[in-house]
Every structure is written in structure tokens, then in C-alpha cells.
Amino acid sequence: IKILRNFEGSNIGILSKKVKNGKININLKIKNEPYKKEVKKKFQNWFYFKVSSIKDKSITYNIKNVNNYDDDWKGFNVCYSYDNINWKRTKTTIKTQKNKANIEWNFKSKSESVWFAYYPPYPFSKVKDIYKKSKVIGKSEQGRPIYMETLGKGETKVWIISGQHPGETVNMWMLEGFMQRLLERKNLLNKFTFFIVPCLNPDGKILGHWYLNAKGVKLNRD
Questions:
Q1: pTM of the predicted model, to two decimals?
Q2: Which pairs with CB-CB distance under 8 Å and at least 24 residues apart come from 206-209?
Q3: pLDDT digit string (tens) for 80-111?
């Protein structure tokens, strides 16, 4: 059994792999982000990894001692995919104690490999492909492009910014759907000019962060 983390946006650490009485248990941890010392709530939600050589094997995965604030993990179910494109959720058990949580799920794979993640990923490589003809309005701390797409010619200006928190991939999926709808309603483009920044935090995307950029800054606060 191999746990792979050598791809864009991955985040997981391996604590142990155990086989006992025919049962396979893999204990994991979410890697820390570069939070400043004075920050009290150091969120650890984002994880994303691939497991291979597991066809027809029933495996229990446990992500240990995750920071848990305001009961964030309540009702959560892990996302999984056999092709890293189409995602579903699998039943997950959350055990909490004070400000910590253990996330546990058992999964019997129908394929040799499976991906697991907090949300369906939206990689920066996808952003670059979709917005490759868009204007580059700046660079990230590590030199990656920050794109901006301009749609419409109306008098009213509308700014739409996404991807400040790189692990909150839902916002980027929503933006993609919003743009599709916008282009179907071209009368709006005569009333408004939309300035769309699809990914404000490309470094966090690449590094597998949930909240922060490469320097430990929350870009929706600063």
C-alpha cells in the first residue's frame, strides 16, 4: 500500500500503517500551515492524497488530532474519487474532544487507486488552463501569476475575487458555474463590467494549504 503526496495541492502526513488480525489501519495527520504565533485558531481542514495498490482491500483511515473549532467537523464526510475528476462522499466517523478531532473512515476500493480529499480539488493548473489568455495583474509571493478576466462593458463595475482560502475549493467551482451562466445572459454584459480574479492565492493552492498563502497571511483579511 502506497500513500502518494507528490502532486499539486496534496497535504497529508503518515503516522503509521498497521496490519493486525487481517485488518489494515492507516493513521495520518494534516500538515501544519505557517500560521503566525499570535494566531489562536490554527485551522487544519485541508487534506488531499492518493492511495495505491489497494484494490479489494478494506482499510480504515484515521486522521489524528486535527484542530477543531466551533464544531467545524460535525456532519463531515470524506470525499473520494477513482479518477481524480468525479467525486463522491463516504461515510465518516468524527470523534471530538475539546479542540481536537479524529476523522475515521473505512473504505474498500474497487480500483487499484483512490484519491481522498476534504473537498473536490480545484488545482491551480486548471486555473491556468481556463484563464491562460487573461490579463496577469500581479505575482504571488513565490512568483506565480494572478489572473484577471474582464467581461462586459457596462457602467457599473463588479469585482469578483475567489481563491483567497485555497482549500475552500467550493468557491472556485461556483465561480466557474457563475461565469457560464453570465455568458448565457449577455444582456448583463451591457449593464455591468465584471473584473474576475479566479485565484488570489496560487501558492496556497500548490502547497496544499487551507487558509494561508506562502508567508502565512490570510488574503481575505490582509
A1: 0.94
A2: 206/8, 206/9, 206/124, 206/142, 206/144, 207/9, 207/166, 208/9, 208/10, 208/11, 208/31, 208/46, 208/48, 208/167, 209/11, 209/33, 209/46, 209/166, 209/167
A3: 999 999 999 999 999 998 899 999 999 999 99
